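Hypothesis: this fold can be encoded by more than one sequence.
Test: take the structure tokens below, design a sequence, compare later.
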């Protein structure tokens, strides 16, 4: 596939480099002949317009990868609607506007598969956007992400900015959040299965276990983003997924196998199921010449090892 955009010699700002996706982008970009720029939250609060504008003007990135976001699982989304809407709206507005102001050549905005209607036809194509009602547990986050991709389209239309958007499915991998109240399902079940194995108790999953979810290993997502930077320049967002889904119950079984947990799996029916299914169509990104390389079992095995390392270093720090 011919390259449209050259990364060689470019100054690339990864906004949100401490997060799971941002860290994977830094790992992936370190294989390119480019200069990676990052800035810590203690230096620039992305919710502060003046901070963001002066940092971008001073550091002059050529390319921006907007991976910074307030993220969390189903319960966090449902519990903190104001933060999920406000923080995401303001930080993406600040970064996108400052990038335009400073003449950034290319920007990639990362959204989420929750932008699509709750009952969208499966697999969900990019044109299903805004065709129906959203899932109530995460509509705040979804609306902020829809606004982000619309901002990219608006700046492209009005100012001809080369800003593109990628919509990844549910991501997992090293650097995930294992806090049970705020995490997504994979890190939560890795931790719960590990603790259940150690204590000899049951593994508890939320809801009915019937919802279907599509998962993508975070380094595959980072690779897709770099591919899109090089090969894509249009106003429609692009789905980034694995192309297959699995029920939460079967996912729990697979995680139990990876972790070596052999006890019973029980349900907490007081917790929400959320969207029944959100499998995205991978046709568009496939046609652009990209497909994932890490299987769910292989990715979960690496993620479990990363969890063990993370918890042993946390343990050593607190000892
Ligand atoms: O990953 P998750 O929190 O987010 O939950 P969503 C996926 C499914 O796993 C839901 C079930 O049906 C949960 O009820 N589940 C089972 C669990 N056990 C657990 C558990 O211990 N912890 C968690 N967290 N879930 C999020 C959105 O939706 O996905 C965000 O809220 C974002 O906005 C993100 O889009 C990717 O897939 O339901």
């Amino acid at each position: 596939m011919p390259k449209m955009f050259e990364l060689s010699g470019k100054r690339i700002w990864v906004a949100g480099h401490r997060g799971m996706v941002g860290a994977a982008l830094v790992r992936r970009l370190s294989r390119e002949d480019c200069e990676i720029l990052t800035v810590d939250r203690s230096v620039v609060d992305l919710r502060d317009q003046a901070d963001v504008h002066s940092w971008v003007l001073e550091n002059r990135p050529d390319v921006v990868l907007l991976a910074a976001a307030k993220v969390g699982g189903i319960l966090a989304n449902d519990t903190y609607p104001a933060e999920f809407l406000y923080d995401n709206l303001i930080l993406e507005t600040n970064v996108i506007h400052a990038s335009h102001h400073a003449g950034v050549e290319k920007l990639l905005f990362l959204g989420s598969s929750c932008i699509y209607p709750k009952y969208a036809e499966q697999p969900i194509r990019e044109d299903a956007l805004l065709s129906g009602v959203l899932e109530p547990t995460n509509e705040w986050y979804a609306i902020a992400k829809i606004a982000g991709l619309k901002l990219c389209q608006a700046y492209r239309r009005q100012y001809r900015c080369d800003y593109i958007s990628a919509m990844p499915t549910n991501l997992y991998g090293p650097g995930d959040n294992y806090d049970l109240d705020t995490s997504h399902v994979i890190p939560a079940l890795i931790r719960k299965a590990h603790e259940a194995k150690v204590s000899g108790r049951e593994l508890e999953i939320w809801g009915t276990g019937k919802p279907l979810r599509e998962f993508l290993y975070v380094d595959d997502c980072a690779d897709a983003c770099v591919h899109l930077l090089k090969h894509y320049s249009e106003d429609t967002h692009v789905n980034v997924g694995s192309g297959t889904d699995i029920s939460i119950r079967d996912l729990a079984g697979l995680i139990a196998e990876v972790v070596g947990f052999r006890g019973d799996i029980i349900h907490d029916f007081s917790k929400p199921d959320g969207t029944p299914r959100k499998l995205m169509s991978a046709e568009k990104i496939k046609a652009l010449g990209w497909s994932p390389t890490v299987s769910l079992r292989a990715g979960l095995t690496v993620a479990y090892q990363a969890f063990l390392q993370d918890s042993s270093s946390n343990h050593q720090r607190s000892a």
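The mean pLDDT is 97. The radius of gyration is 19 Å.
Hypothesis status: open.
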